[in-house]
Amino acid sequence: MRSFGRTTLFAAVTLMFAASAQATVWTSTGVTSNPAANHLNSAGHSIDIGNTSTMSADGISVSVTAWSNTNQTGVVNETSVGTSTNSLAYTLESAYLGHWSGSGYGVTNRDRTNDGASTGDEGEGVSPEHALDNEDRYDSLLFSFSGAANGVILSSVFKGWVQTDSDISVWAYTDGVTTSTDLTGATYSNLGSGWELVGHYSGTSSTGTVNINSSGLSSSYWLIGAYTPVGGASFTTNNDHMKILKLTGTAANCTTTPNAPGCSTTTGNGIPEPSSLALLGLGLLGLLKMRRRENAAN
């Protein structure tokens, strides 16, 4: 009986320490070119649209692609009759994914034109519009996770470079664990069936962490953009320019309703959430009391 008590106590303490394991952090890496998708726009800029990057940590890989709302209805080559005015009616097209060591991912969209041009996205591709920004066009990054059977619960975004402001908008795909990674033709107001707006998050003019997804939503597909005015939110009118250096989250452990908010009482790698830890603590107290009674009886 005494031996069983010691063993049980040891197992409980071990589990509590295991529960304190850190969340996974994915850090931006270099990009892979996609020469077959080079896009020569009417301003004479060749843009390596559709290129990718892959981040990996704890056995979970993340494919990263860049998107922007550059497709105007009836326009074959955007900048030929483009405008410097943004519009949520423009549909999404793949964009160029850039990477800066120590700063993170940025985006250059297809409407890049020269400084002083009267059409297209003037200044796109040069600082500060070489970043994830909402000046003239709304840029975003699609993070597609693999290796986590029930998706990933993202908890924070780390900005490695900021100019002016850094508000962000976040969407997640919540209709199962697989979807197309091609967002062509969608709009930020309507990404398609299964996508939902997780929220808008206020940033600052400084680098650092933005906490997101307080409801614990899990997904294999996360779209993170410079603040986009959809869903009723209203932030400052300052242009947002940033680069995304890191993401933090945990693999979801959802056994019944994958990719649903609060789909399980455990987070990544089977780590109990605070409520589970509280129950474990109560159980440990009970074991300690039993141990005292046992000692008193002997």
Write the layout of secondary structure elements.
Elements: H1 2-18, E1 24-27, E2 31-32, E3 38-40, E4 46-48, E5 52-57, E6 60-71, E7 91-94, E8 96-100, E9 104-108, E10 112-113, E11 121-122, E12 132-133, E13 139-146, E14 152-163, E15 168-173, E16 195-201, E17 208-211, E18 221-226, E19 241-251, E20 266-267, E21 271-272, H2 274-297
Parallel strand pairs: 10-11
Antiparallel strand pairs: 1-19, 2-5, 3-4, 5-6, 6-7, 6-13, 8-9, 12-19, 13-18, 14-17, 14-19, 15-16, 15-18, 20-21
Give a summary of the structure in a few sentences:
The protein is mainly β and 298 residues long. It is built from 2 helices and 21 strands. The chain has one domain.
